């Protein structure tokens, strides 16, 4: 019997050691975590006016800390689970074809892939925004749940040449290493907040293709005006790199239409400032999902999302940051149902396209408004 327990102890020790070796190896060697920042990089970040010894900081005081009672409450809620946390069955997206995307014209179109990923076609340019197209929004499949849809509206290898990718920040539900790997041979340029370029360089993207931008900085890309505007959030991909890269929202201005994408973040006065400087917008894609009262400073409640659309002077609002992943403690349809009520109260037109449903942006257009989520 003693021999048995001795062997069992040895086996357990081997298993634990193997697990620790794998864990440390993954943590320090996996490309998922992105790149490092040189002294020259950090000097650039400090020159932005939004970076100090702790990293990048928001325009208004923002705390990520929770009280012990709030932390315990959150742990209990995750342990207990929530009702209707994901669709009752896999969402089946509308399918689009490469031929459709190659039929260029001057119309502005948007195709939503779920969460915050969408394809913007504007002035014959094709721009992918926050293309998290993988199945799990985490550095390892074991660390998260699968997305709600097994298939994408179009497979990555079927996408045509992409003029540019735009990234709001480096969290896993917005910047996915494997998606970038699959896309990089067909993307011309990358527009990212300061610091995020380190990840792309580590992933083999040539530096000349990467454009790192500061808040309020403008860039002309093939006659489009692209502007990185502020958001109220945070960043980080590992356990030691919180706020080492910038986060933000984006203005994309074409010849006829202007599009605003909020990125992630809590509600604050920056929306009004963006509206004054760059509004009105033909459409605003506003974060609306993965919120909780315990982290309301860094993720808007649906009612705030609707108000933010009013603040930026949007003609139409589209709620995003839902419809693909369960990352918080509300039901998967809570965001769209709550924002629908508030948008109506504020007289803010709302569009709710299905995944993969292509729609045209512009005055006089009829926008998708079906309650498709009720089918799931």
TrEMBL record:
Keyword check for Kinase, yes or no. no
> Which InterPro entries does this chain map to?
Metallo-B-lactamas, NAPE-PLD, RibonucZ/Hydroxyglut_hydro
| Record key words, sorted | Membrane, Transmembrane, Transmembrane helix
| Protein origin, superkingdom | Bacteria
State if Transmembrane helix is listed as a keyword: yes
Q: Which residues cross the membrane?
A: 7-29
Give start and end of each Metallo-beta-lactamase domain: 126-322
Any matching Pfam family: Lactamase_B_2
Stored PANTHER family: N-ACYL-PHOSPHATIDYLETHANOLAMINE-HYDROLYZING PHOSPHOLIPASE D (PTHR15032:SF4)
Report the protein name in the record: MBL fold metallo-hydrolase
User: Species name for this entry?
Assistant: Flammeovirga kamogawensis
